Amino acid sequence: MARIAGVDLPRRKRLDVALTYIYGVGDTLAKEIVAKTGIEDSTKVQDLTEEEVRLIRNLLEAEYTVEGDLRREIQGNIKRLKDLNCYRGIRHRKGLPVRGQRTRTNARSRRGPRRAMVRKRK
Q1: 52-100 per-position pLDDT tens digit
Q2: Measured distance CA(94)–CA(42) in Å, rounded
Q3: Residue 115 pLDDT > 90, yes or no?
Q4: Are residues 81 and 45 in the same domain?
Q5: Are residues 46 and 92 located together in one domain of the fold?
Q6: What is the pLDDT of residues 58-70, one digit of tens each?
Q7: Among 34, 57, 29, which residue's Cα sits nearest to residue 44?
Q8: Could you say which residues form the signal peptide (predicted)?
Q9: What total number of domains does the chain contain?
Q10: Distance between CA atoms of residues 95 and 120, nearest Å
């Protein structure tokens, strides 16, 4: 089993697809990594040699920010915005959409499920 950046890659998937299981690696970056290492992208993870796994691991550590470091960096950026009391920081603190989306309708993923209105008794 290939373990890269603290993530066990799925064995039966193609290498370019399996690399996307690492936080911070998407389709484009996965294809770029495969091209830089010179490994065939259609290779299954279970068919990788130790040398190829080491190549990928070294490339990720040297050139890209992924997994824990990336999560820490993003959390630090959000904390900085909150400490500055800027508009985006206030939106993060209140749990509302940050990038200008409407909140009159929608925004359910940020605001949580609807709560029922309590009616007055007559």
Answers
A1: 999 999 999 999 999 999 999 999 999 999 999 999 999 999 999 999 9
A2: 45
A3: no
A4: no
A5: no
A6: 999 999 999 999 9
A7: 34
A8: none
A9: 2
A10: 29
Choose among 2, 5, 122: nearest CA to 63.
5
Which one, of 77, 103, 99, lies nearest residue 88 by Cα? 99
In the chain, % helix, strand, coil (3-state, to 5) comes to 55, 5, 40
Residue positions counted in the chain: 122
Residues 50 and 81 in one domain: no
> CB under 8 Å to 45, separation ≥6 — which residues?
2, 9, 10, 11, 12, 13, 14, 15, 18
Interatomic CA distance for residues 44 and 1, integer angstroms: 11
Provide the CATH number for the domain around residue 9: 1.10.8.50
C-alpha to C-alpha distance for 50 and 18, rounded to whole angstroms: 16
| 29 lies in the same domain as 78 | no
For 59-96, the three-class secondary structure string (H helix, E strand, C coil) is HHHHHCCCHHHHHHHHHHHHHHHHHHCCHHHHHHHHCC
Residue 102 CA to residue 121 CA, distance in Å, equals: 33
User: Do 37 and 52 contact (CB within 8 A), yes or no?
Assistant: yes
